Structures are given as C-alpha cells and as structure tokens.
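Hi R.,

As promised on Friday, here is the backbone we talked about, encoded as structure tokens. Could you run it through your design pipeline when you get a chance and send me back a sequence?
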C-alpha cells in the first residue's frame, strides 16, 4: 500500500485546520501531524513531510525537508519567508492573502471614525463629569486614498463608498475596482495630494521600503491623516515624526512597525498626533477558521495536482 502524503500543521492552534480537513473529506487521503510553532520538525518529519502549514521557518530547516513540495503561509505577508537565505527554489509557496479582508477593512473604518468623531474625547470628559460640547466631522464627501487596492483595499473601498466617501487609490493591474477611481503606481502623488485620509496597504518589498518619506509627505494636505495598516517598513519613521510635529500633515494612526512590539523608547509613543495601535488590523476570533478554508481548498488542489490559490510571486515579493 502506498503511504499517505504527510502534512504538517506547524502552528499552536491546529484544531481549526484539523476540523476543516475532516469537513472537506480529506482525512482518508493524508496523514496529518501537528507541531507547536516554537518547535523544530524531527528528523523523520524532515525526511517525509510533503506539505506544511506554518507562520514561517527558521533558516536551515526547509532544505532538510527533502520531500517538501508546498508551504502554505498563515500570513498574507511573506517577507519573512522570502528573506530566508536557503528557501528552496522549487518550493511552491502560497500565502493567506484575502483571509482577513473584512476584519482589516472594519478596523480601518474604525480608525477613520476615531479621527472624525469625538467619542474618545467625550469618554475622557465623562471621567470628570464634564459636559463639553464637541463637533463631529462628517466622513461623507471626504476623499479616502488607498495605496494598494488588493483584496483588503477593494473591501475597504466598497465599505467607504457606501458611507459616502470618495475613494481613489493605486494598483498595478488595470482592472476597475468597484467604488474607487484607480490610478497606476506612477501617479501616487496624485492620490497623495487629493486624499483627506491616506491608507497604506502596500506589500513589503525592496521597492516599497521607506515609500512614505519626506518628499511624499510634502504632497499631502496639511489637514490629511496617514493610516498604515500594511507593513511597518513602508514609512520612514523619522520623516513621519517630523511631518506630524511640523504639521505637514494632521496626524497618523499606525498599526504596523519595523519592530514589534514597538520599543518603549520609540518616539512614536510620545509624538503628538501619532496613535500607536498594537497590530490589531487583521486579527479576529475566527481567523484560523477562515484561513483553514483557504488551506483545505489548496490542500485538495495539491492532492489532485491542480493549480494552487494565492501563489506567491517571488520576483514581485508577494
């Protein structure tokens, strides 16, 4: 009898994936093994496992997995995988692109409402029983710029346009995006100049490192806000601190950083106009269940020899 393909769930929360495998009727076609995220595959697993679900892998492990043909990343961003010095050239890598489009878009909308509506200040006033009249700013009619109209950006465009915002943004492809006016990346400055709120959803690549710098910030309105829910390295930290301090822009809400947790000594914590979020963008209580749906779809395709979804383009970096 031919041995079943061995699949390794390299995560601290394998239950949702095991259940999804059973629900998809795949249990009889594979041998499933689990491994906590912080542990290293055994010699036997390195010799026999053909596919893994993982957050990433330390250097030196993947080349030892001689039968490994496919790795499903638990995250949409794959810069950690691509930075591995020994990532096998023949390994098929897929990511979790699009699996948190709803939660991310909702959290970005929440940040927009936080800026425009005075509920946080009102809550502070209540602590001292202070009746302080405040004015809410309408979001309807304001321009939302989105750099990176991928799955999350498109979801955000739909939701923002539904509350009356004008949505513009950039993407590489030429396909239209419902609810948004699309510009090519070469016209990024046009989006910067028109936006009342600018959301960063670009992938992490060499091309996007320090993408938002002093020169680009200078194109924004002094009343505009910057929201980064993409990757921390998209922003030149010092330039953003200067821009908010000098009132080049009104302020920023940041959910991602070059180093996480953000060091307590970082100036972002104390810069007026900058709000630090503890990377809440894509997380939600049922994220594993959503990712598991993508994984089992890809697992079925893998077993049947069909093309996989959400393939990573190594040259593009995402």
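Update: got your reply. Pasting your designed sequence below so it's all in one thread:
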């Amino acid at each position: 009898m031919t041995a079943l393909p061995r699949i390794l769930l390299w995560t601290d929360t394998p239950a949702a994936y095991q259940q999804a495998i059973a629900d998809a009727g795949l249990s009889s076609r594979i041998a499933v093994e689990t491994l906590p995220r912080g542990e290293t595959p055994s010699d036997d697993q390195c010799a026999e496992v053909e596919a893994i679900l993982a957050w990433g892998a330390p250097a030196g492990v993947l080349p030892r997995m001689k039968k490994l043909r496919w790795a499903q990343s638990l995250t949409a961003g794959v810069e950690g995988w691509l930075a591995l010095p020994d990532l096998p050239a023949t390994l098929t890598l897929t990511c979790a692109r699009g699996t948190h489009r709803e939660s991310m878009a909702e959290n970005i909308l929440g940040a927009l409402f936080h800026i425009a509506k005075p509920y946080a200040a009102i809550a502070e006033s209540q602590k001292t029983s202070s009746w302080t009249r405040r004015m809410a700013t309408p979001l309807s009619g304001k321009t939302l710029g989105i750099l990176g109209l991928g799955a999350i950006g498109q979801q955000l465009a739909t939701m923002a346009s539904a509350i009356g915002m004008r949505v513009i943004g950039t993407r590489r492809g030429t396909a239209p995006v419902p609810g948004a006016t699309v510009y090519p990346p070469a016209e990024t400055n046009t989006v910067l100049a028109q936006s009342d709120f600018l959301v960063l959803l670009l992938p992490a690549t060499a091309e996007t490192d320090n993408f938002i710098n002093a020169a680009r910030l200078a194109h924004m309105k002094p009343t505009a806000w910057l929201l980064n829910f993409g990757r921390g390295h998209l922003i030149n930290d010092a330039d953003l601190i200067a821009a908010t301090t000098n009132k080049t822009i009104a302020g920023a809400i940041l959910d991602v950083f070059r180093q996480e947790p953000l060091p307590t000594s970082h100036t972002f914590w104390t810069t007026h106009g900058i709000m630090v979020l503890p990377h809440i963008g894509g997380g939600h209580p049922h994220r594993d269940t959503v990712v598991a749906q993508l994984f089992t779809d890809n697992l079925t395709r893998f077993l049947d020899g069909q093309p996989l979804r959400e393939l990573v383009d190594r040259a593009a970096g995402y």
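One thing I noticed while checking it: The first strand starts at residue 6 and ends at 10.

Thanks again,
M.
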